């Protein structure tokens, strides 16, 4: 029988333990059992499981205490908690602290196998991981991100232009690269340029090239990206004159270098990104409306880190491993309380800020385990990134929408009237901030 992975089961109910082992072994898993947390910790390093499954309520060491101890020893080991219905709130809180998932009693066999497979895939133990190689650099277990990746893989199959919108630090370029990797253009180049990093004349020269001196032509990024993808980051910062030239390329699928009379086919896919509200820029006359519609054939909105908080622990551990391997291999993990502080912190700078904080913690660490006090110092207000005006406006807009929808108990028509917006605009605003009317109907 095919080996699917190694699982360590922990439960003080020996009857349930035997039943679960029998089910898992029949599916091809290699299974070890422990009747309490002490036995589990004794077998952890010897058996080296790929997944740990533990009951929440046990004598001697309960499930969460066991998780914290296991996490300090094996920070990247997925832990699944088994819980009774009455302890579901505790289990939900546990996932925010880094527990991979939880299963309620009575245990549904199919659901259990599905969660185990997901844990194995996430930890890189499953051959099926190759199916997700296109987005392997995007670390997530958040449903909102998983839904976004499903949508991204679907749109990758076409050559339609894509506009990625999201706050600074959310990983727009990372998602753009993933979409490129899932597309038929994956064997072609992926070329990125930050439109805010160059003055207009230099940006134009980079995009369209020059023909000022014979024999000394500058190759354009449109030419360099032939057969692949050109990613225009912070496209909202492109000067209006250059926007007109970009529009012509998108309409004619041809481009001319500066000063050239001949045109060449533009065999590329355009993806662009911005942390600003492009519709507001259009209304203010700072961005061409026709170009906006050309770029925004398919729009994808990337959630903030605070909207996918269940990923914070997973990301922090992954970043620690990555940074430590490069700078300080002896740094192995976070102390449980240190990880809890990270999970409960606000992250206005999103994933980028979390990475920077973890990098600082690893570089400055003098021990193999990063302490609670080190994290507390790193999270002082002086070290937090200041939000940009656009990010602050976006956060205000989201909180305003939440308040209006809460008062309207999820009735979109009523909420739109209160906000003095038409229903279509209001639905767009909700989509931008990943808000669903059903969330507020339930609260109502």
TrEMBL record:
Keyword field contains Phosphoprotein: yes
Keyword annotations: ATP-binding, Nucleotide-binding, Phosphoprotein, Transcription, Transcription regulation, Two-component regulatory system
Domain Sigma-54 factor interaction: 138-363
PROSITE patterns (alphabetical): RESPONSE_REGULATORY, SIGMA54_INTERACT_1, SIGMA54_INTERACT_3, SIGMA54_INTERACT_4
Example GO biological process: regulation of DNA-templated transcription
Alphabetized Gene3D superfamilies for the sequence: 1.10.8.60, 3.40.50.2300, Homeodomain-like, P-loop containing nucleotide triphosphate hydrolases
Residues modified as 4-aspartylphosphate: 55
Gene Ontology molecular function, alphabetical: ATP binding; sequence-specific DNA binding
Record-linked SMART domains: AAA, REC
Protein name in the entry: Two-component system, NtrC family, response regulator GlrR
Species per Swiss-Prot/TrEMBL record: Pseudobacteriovorax antillogorgiicola
